Amino acid sequence: MSAQVANHAAAASSAAAHDHGKNDRAMMSASNEEESTVLYGSKEAKHALHARISKSKLGEEGLLDLDEEIEEGNIEYKWKLVDPTPERLEHLTSQLKWRLFEGQGEAFYEIGIEDNGTARGLPAEELDKSIQTVRRMAKNLGCEVFEICKRKAKEGEIAELLVREVRDDKYMDVRIAVCGNVDAGKSTFIGVLTKGHLDNGRGLARVNVFNHKHEIETGRTSSISQQILGFNAKGECVNYLAANTVHRDMTWGDIVEQSYKVISFIDLAGHEKYLKTTVSGMTGHMPDYCFLMVGANMGVTRMTKEHLALALALKIPLIVVVTKVDICPENVLQQTLSDITRILKMRGVNKMPLMIKTDDDFITAVKSIAADRVVPIFLVSNVTGKDLDLVRKFLNLVPPRIEWALLRDNKHPEVLIDQTYFVTGVGTVVGGTVMSGSIQANDSMLLGPDSLGAFIPVQIKSVHSKRVPVKQVVAGMSAGFALKKIKRSTIRKGMVLVPINSNPQPTIYFEADVIILYHSTTIHKNYQPVIQCLTIRQSAKIMAILGEKDVLRTGDRAKILFKFMYRPEFLKEGMRVIFREGRCKAVGLLLRVAIPEAEALAMTEKAEKEAAASKASSSGATTEQR
Questions:
Q1: Does residue 504 have a cis peptide bond before it, meaning omega lies within 30 degrees of 0?
Q2: pLDDT tens readout for residues 383-397
Q3: What value does the CA radius of gyration of the chain take, rounded to a whole number of Å?
Q4: Which of 66, 180, 274, 571 could potentially form a cystine with 184 if both were Cys, beta carbons 3.0 to 4.6 Å apart?
Q5: Distance of alpha carbon 443 from its chain centroid, rounded?
Q6: CA distances from 130 to 126, 153, 156, 367, 384 (A)
Q7: pTM of the predicted structure, to 2 decimals
Q8: What sign for the dihedral angle of Cα 401, 38, 571, 514?
């Protein structure tokens, strides 16, 4: 039975997609269109990128040609940029500015490739002049350029360049959730990357990542911890450079101050009894990507498939990291890779595995990862350091997936609270993710909902981000807010901070479009799963299954009316929800929130009548057949 459940965790979405393909397309309704574009990227850009990957072809001499250049995205093809006129240079600079905007501050330039994707290449002298032209363009915009690599082509060489904006007042934040089975090496992997020192094989590197004493004693993560890795505009790792200079570990403030891009690792628990903590980390911290850690000697376990299914349900792009390859026999390693490949190619998962062994491989992965079609696979060792440099190069170039810039300007500020603290001498502090707008110290906001659904006014005394005091935080940043004259006991995870002049509505009754990924029997009215939506986690009761069905089984889809069991929450239409109860798993999309009680009761009564009529009709049809 356990094997059946384990296999179903990864393939659960397959049955739903097969039986309800038309409904899956309908799920992206108008209410979710804007959120989907912001959080998961432009559909047109994704489709174009898929086409580029699928249509890439080998030229006559075995050289990789690409599909035609697309107008969207941050990748630009240029065959030759030798001695452009001032007017031409101005046009090229404007084009670079557009590519930087599309890439949220980063742009890739392929020198030696024509607009139709043909890899022609250039002689050394012309290639150098073209690179100098790109540097002139970047200088006009205050950007840095560094060369990623060069490759041979038909008529010479091709150069891969990365152009980055130089920002003194802000940095690019990429969040990566690290999950996988217990003892897969998640915390050790993070410790090695962020500190720059290899592990000794007995857990030395992971000590710096753990939050609690019992975690150090047992070697198992039970809480959500965060570590950061910084890269400057030249692509150098700030953690290592400064540590070698000052001969001490860098503080978060030092790293952030010198970094152009900050990789925020979210270390999640691997043990099954901490699964709800892992789900909260995946839903509430808004990761851009997910590192799925697999121990080479342990293979793909049931919890590996659980975490894979969770990432698929939340539509978070995956990167697979196979650890402990130094102690794994070759035949066992090959079996592990075969299992990973088989699962990724299953119907319903439908991913393209890409083994990362060379610089060309990781560059291909960087350009395709945001489309959520290709899954890079790294083979690493935290003891010998095998291929850790490839992981660092990948992290240096990987773009942020969520377009937070679209949620910053002219948007009402909103913060999802996921932590609460009491700091001596400061008072109550709440931590969370800024979902939209911008927030400054001394701003007044509404905090809630409380157990009665009320929102109370609070004032923010100070703001910290990445353990550094700041004047302002904007959408996409994690921050801590010190609040005036409020007790910590009145605050809980799942509350929000919203503008003082808004009129937030607490939600008791809500309607969701739900797909049942797995359930051993049937789901019916009055069933009470645990609903998880961003930082919210609470039991809810099914008041009614709207439509003709009165029970739901694995693979079924229906609109369901829920009621929170204990207290109201703050929800928005278009949010993704996960509910689980034991082995039962389902995902859905919020269609309506803050439904009045009278309307909810009327919907329940109507659903009961429709179910009774449908049952009577089917019963009559059965009698006639007999």
A1: no
A2: 999 999 999 999 999
A3: 26
A4: 180
A5: 29
A6: 6, 16, 13, 22, 40
A7: 0.82
A8: negative
